[in-house]
Write a structure and sequence with these properties.
Blueprint: E1 10-13, E2 16-17, E3 20-21, H1 23-39, E4 43-49, H2 55-61, E5 66-71, H3 80-94, E6 98-102, H4 105-118, E7 122-126, E8 128-136, E9 141-153, E10 158-162, E11 170-174, E12 191-195, E13 225-229, H5 240-249, E14 252-255, H6 257-261, E15 282-286, H7 292-295, E16 303-308, E17 321-324, H8 327-344
Length: 345
């Protein structure tokens, strides 16, 4: 166990694959920069891999003061144990006070292993991070500037704030898309520190024989327009209207969990607490009641249009424009209006 280091840096694990940074790493850099500035400490990023040193400059542009770079052929493709060894040795060596990971499949695999080895706490799937004080009434002490790790709990019915005053580093995985990615400043300067890691035979016991990657079927995070359908659509056949409206608007198709559980569309289209978090320029919610779990994944969209027969549906509380009506009638009217406008422009 590492003792709390109040002057320790704020770190981001820079997730990369095939020499390309995952967007969530850059999103976390923006947040980590904010936290480091408030704490008055440096912000660092750990970049491990093979031939990825050039990615250090993007991390510096997005806020890193130091990039801890580990260059090793054994890190060319992700394997749990070698990457965990990298993080554990660097954490022991440099003693950061906060370490952030993306709540991606890779991050969800790696972070718990590190937490177990370091005997540190870990909060999974955070949707927000902040700093605050905590008064320990039993010990009659106050801990200042702890990381407040904020995430939905009990099926999204409450928001829990989790702290870790004793066992550091304070660690969390953060959902993709919930933090805003900064523009980045290529003029920023920072330090690239080349680190050496000692691996043992146990770390390298798993061999990568063959690698298969399935292409993502839909890119909800990158879509400027999303038309999403919910359980109120009624059936898989009726969901074709959602596809048609998305086509007319040149957007992607999303869905609530109710629509996915109903078999109307695949899980890769799911938006919300247990799906993808999105921030499109336009979000059209069709037959979505607007449960808190769904709103958590889309309420920061620039413009939200909600279509629902229930005028009291919670979705209207976050919508900029609301249409009370039957989607079977409203959507065809919208498609017709969009197409007519297209022919007259």
């Amino acid at each position: 166990m590492i003792e709390p280091n109040r002057k320790g840096e704020v770190w981001v694990f820079a997730e990369q694959e095939d020499e390309s940074l995952n967007d969530v790493s850059l999103e976390l850099c923006t947040k980590a920069r904010e936290l480091a500035d408030r704490l008055g400490v440096q912000m660092g990023a750990v970049l491990a891999g093979w031939n990825v040193r050039e990615l250090s400059y993007r991390l510096i542009a997005h806020g890193a003061d130091r990039v801890y770079h580990v260059h090793d052929t054994r890190l060319e493709h992700y394997r749990t144990m070698p990457y965990a060894r990298v993080m554990c040795q660097l954490i022991t060596r440099h003693r950061p006070q906060i370490v952030l990971y993306g709540a991606t499949p890779l991050g969800r695999d790696l972070a718990p292993r590190i937490a177990s080895e370091m005997r540190a706490g870990l909060t999974a799937d955070c949707t927000d991070l902040d700093l605050g004080d905590y008064e320990d009434k039993r010990a009659k002490t106050t801990h200042h500037n702890l990381l407040l790790q904020i995430r939905p709990a009990f099926g999204g019915n409450i928001i829990a704030t989790i702290i870790n005053p004793d066992r550091w580093p304070q660690m969390a995985t953060v959902r993709e898309g919930v933090m805003r990615m900064g523009e980045g400043d290529a003029r920023r300067s920072g330090e690239i520190i080349d680190e050496k890691i000692a691996f043992d035979d146990f770390d390298l016991a798993v061999k990568l024989i063959e690698r298969h990657r399935e292409q993502r079927k839909v890119n909800l995070k990158g879509a400027r327009v999303i038309v999403a359908g919910g359980g109120g659509v009624g059936s898989k056949d009726n969901f074709k209207l959602v596809h048609e409206l998305a086509g007319a608007l040149g957007g992607a198709v999303g869905a609530s969990r109710a629509a996915v559980d109903g078999g109307f569309i695949g899980k890769e289209h799911q938006i919300g607490q247990t799906g993808t978090t999105v921030r499109p320029a336009l979000y059209v919610a069709c037959g979505i009641s607007g449960a808190v779990q769904h709103r958590a994944g889309m309420e920061e969209s620039a413009k939200i249009i909600a279509i629902n027969w229930d005028k009291d549906a919670p979705i209207f509380s976050v919508a900029h424009y609301g249409i009370v009506g039957d989607i079977g009638k409203v959507i065809p009217m919208m498609i017709e209006a969009i197409r007519e406008r297209g022919t007259t422009d």
